[in-house]
Amino acid sequence: MTASSGDVSGSGERVFLRLGPPPEEPNQFVVEGAPQSYSPDVQARLEVEAKEIIGRYPNKGSALLPLLHLVQGEDSYITPAGLEFCASQLGLTSAQVSAVATFYTMYRRGPTGEYLVGVCTNTLCAVMGGDAIFAELKEHLGIGNDQTTDDGSITLQHIECNAACDFAPVVMVNWEFFDNQTCESARELVDSLRAGKPKDPTRGAPLCGFRQTSRILAGLRDERPDQGQGGAGAATLAGLRVAKEHGMEAPTAPEDQS
């Protein structure tokens, strides 16, 4: 949108000012075609689920983060419709909801594929091969950072530390871990996703689609089988094992002298 400010230069030429956020402005939920509101049936369904989520908190404002995951599960990203829905359910303004949503990188700002593939490119993962893996996947998939394949199956993203440095380099798919990756194993992983036969994560539950993952993060029922995939891996526990073998203990805290 533009607005004329009239002749302010004395040259007889009109000056036009662009109103609203610049198109390249980061952290804005402005995507062409994004829903501005939900249909009555979607609204009713989301209200039932939101009521269940909000009821878990003594202060309903505390339910904002799971509600954002709920609407992300509807649209695959945060849309004006989702912002307005969260605001109306919690008695907040859309600006307040947007301020929270833009703070956390797990809330997507554009349409997301069936699988969000995140390659850690932070220091240790990068040194161990993360940068090479990310470059390999960009070429293999024909897309860049935060872009989605034409078939809508994969959105590729370089991400910051996933607190899994002992398994570097790490690739995450819909927030599930694939540890100790190589360029070859990462290519095989994304090929399995595109073929509809996703590999099992190194740790964690079997993969589901990105929208369903968002609904699980919202606190709704997780139908995936619990096969005991959790718990710390051997690499994480190595230091503890060595400490026990050598009788090492943490130093005793000094007594309070106050």
TrEMBL record:
Q: Which Pfam families match?
A: 2Fe-2S_thioredx
The UniProt entry, under CDD domains, shows: TRX_Fd_NuoE (cd03064)
This protein's superkingdom?
Bacteria
Q: How is the cofactor bound?
A: Binds 1 [2Fe-2S] cluster.
Question: Does the record carry Iron as a key word?
Answer: yes
Any single GO molecular-function term of the entry would be: 2 iron, 2 sulfur cluster binding
UniProt keywords (A-Z) are: 2Fe-2S, Iron, Iron-sulfur, Metal-binding, NAD, Quinone, Translocase
The answer on whether this UniProt entry bears the keyword Translocase reads yes
UniProt catalytic activity: a quinone + NADH + 5 H(+)(in) = a quinol + NAD(+) + 4 H(+)(out)
Q: What cofactor is needed?
A: [2Fe-2S] cluster
Which InterPro entries is this protein grouped with?
NuoE-like, NuoE_dom, NuoE_N, Thioredoxin-like_sf
Give the binding site residues for [2Fe-2S] cluster: 120, 125, 161, 165
Q: Which family does it belong to?
A: Belongs to the complex I 24 kDa subunit family.
Function as written in the Swiss-Prot or TrEMBL entry: NDH-1 shuttles electrons from NADH, via FMN and iron-sulfur (Fe-S) centers, to quinones in the respiratory chain. The immediate electron acceptor for the enzyme in this species is believed to be menaquinone. Couples the redox reaction to proton translocation (for every two electrons transferred, four hydrogen ions are translocated across the cytoplasmic membrane), and thus conserves the redox energy in a proton gradient.
Q: What is this protein called?
A: NADH-quinone oxidoreductase subunit E
